[in-house]
Design goal:
- The chain has helices at 6-12, 34-39, 52-58, 71-74, 106-120, 134-145, 163-169, 216-223, 245-252, 302-317, 363-376, and strands at residues 4-5, 16-19, 26-27, 29-31, 45-48, 84-87, 100-102, 124-129, 151-153, 177-181, 202-205, 235-239, 259-263, 270-277, 282-288, 291-297, 340-345, 351-356.
- By secondary structure, it is of the alpha/beta class.
- It folds into two domains: 4-105, Udp-n-acetylmuramoylalanyl-d-glutamate--2,6- Diaminopimelate Ligase, Chain: A, domain 1 (3-Layer(aba) Sandwich), CATH 3.40.1390; 121-331, Mur-like, catalytic domain (UDP-N-acetylmuramoyl-L-alanine:D-glutamate ligase), CATH 3.40.1190.
- The radius of gyration is 22 Å and the shape is globular.
Length: 396
């Protein structure tokens, strides 16, 4: 079966049933938080309860990312969202109809389930990383692929060393495509990055900038590890215009020499031929690996158009006809806080417009937001103001 059922859990995870499931019971998604369980509420969710000590000891999360509340204690508040639980200790107060399986370390179970899922996965996988643009590219790729195919993709931006195997474990349902977003925190781990255990058919790097106490050069070397386990299989899709491109391509070639580029530059394999920006978005003509396409998008700025180019290059590489999906690009909405233009009305009836890029805190993202703000200003009357957080890498 394409699921985690009683027998498969017993085979994969050492432990015992505190409350055994009924015959025919199964789950098809794995979650460790209320938000993930809520996102998958249309599926049968297997929840992994993790205590605070295990989380802090095994996740590697530190500083502002270290906070964790023992979910054995909180699951009672959202138990209606789950269909089964693997826990470190019995939870007697939980609904007796929810099966409970007990094991010593539930954080380790994430990897056990992911390994089992990936070993049996028959579809095609795409991994996306980058300092900025990875979530937009992942969300757009998911939306376009879902028009005609089944897809499992990273939920929200849970793209960490924990989030990656969680996403992979959800591919137990055998979707046509698995789309995994990976942050740098999943790539700098030792002895190797997390993606080496789940090598994709296609890897994508959208952009490079410093961050997480790494400069741009160091980031480029680490981001290249998204291809670490590919062994010259499949292809790596790179933004030809990104910072440290030469560093990235040199580092990627250690893992995979099959490289495809995209961008605005003349040498790119997929290239923007022309783009016209308007008040509400852009109209673009592009050559995607030799095939000319035109599309309209609500996304703003060259960086966002570049993300679309990455997605179209992936889709073309997968062998999917671009004609079947290109018209759907105009349906895609910017995510909250990602170069999103929003109109508001004040109590006196006057209006104002905000270009909200509050989600991105990287230098390249903030510079792009300032450029777009300048370009969009011509469509608006009245005062123009910019509110930015302090940042040392904005440049001139």
């Amino acid at each position: 079966m394409h699921c985690f059922d009683k027998e498969s859990i017993e085979d994969i995870v050492p432990g015992y049933w505190y409350r055994e499931p009924e015959r025919g019971w199964y789950t098809e998604s794995v979650a460790i938080s209320r938000s993930e369980a809520k996102m998958d509420r249309e599926k049968k969710v297997l929840f992994l309860a993790v205590d605070a000590h295990t989380w802090h000891n095994d996740s590697g999360n530190k500083g502002i990312y270290a906070g964790w509340q023992d979910t054995h204690d909180t699951i009672i508040k959202f138990q209606t969202l789950v269909d089964g639980i693997i826990a470190q200790r019995p939870i007697p107060e939980l609904d007796e109809n929810i099966p409970q399986y007990i094991t010593e370390n539930t954080y380790e179970v994430i990897k056990l389930l992911a390994d089992h899922s990936f070993k049996n996965f028959k579809g095609q996988s795409i991994a996306i990383t980058g300092t900025a643009g990875k979530s937009t590219a992942k969300n757009l790729l998911k939306m376009l692929l879902e028009k005609y195919h089944s897809v499992v993709a990273t939920r929200g931006n849970h793209n960490t060393r924990t989030g990656v195997p969680l996403t992979v474990s959800c591919a137990i349902t055998q979707p046509d495509y698995l789309v995994v977003e990976s942050a740098i925190s999943g790539l700098w781990t030792t002895p190797h990055g997390i993606m080496k255990d789940f090598p994709p058919l296609i890897a994508v790097i959208t952009s490079i900038d410093g961050g997480q106490r790494k400069n741009a050069h160091q980031t480029a070397v680490l981001k290249a590890k998204v291809a670490e386990g590919m062994r010259d299989r499949g292809a790596v899709v790179l933004n030809r215009d990104m910072n440290e491109f030469e560093t990235v391509i040199e580092s990627v070639k250690k893992y995979n020499k099959n490289i495809i580029t995209y961008g605005f530059s003349e040498p790119a394999d997929s290239r923007v031929l022309s783009h016209i920006e308007s008040k509400d978005g852009s109209v673009v003509k592009a050559s995607i690996l030799g095939e000319e396409v035109r599309f309209t998008t609500k996304l703003n700025g060259q960086a966002m158009i570049s993300n679309i180019m990455a997605v179209l290059t992936v889709i073309k590489t997968l062998g999917i006809p671009l004609s079947s999906i290109v018209d759907h690009i105009k349906e895609f909405e910017p995510s909250e806080g990602v170069l999103k233009i929003e109109d508001y009305k004040k109590h006196d009836g006057s209006t104002f417009t905000i270009l909200d890029d509050g989600w991105n805190a990287t230098g390249i993202a903030m510079v792009e937001a300032i450029k777009i703000c300048g370009k969009k200003a011509e469509y608006y009357n009245g005062k123009k103001n910019s509110c930015n957080r302090p940042h040392r890498k904005l440049g001139r």
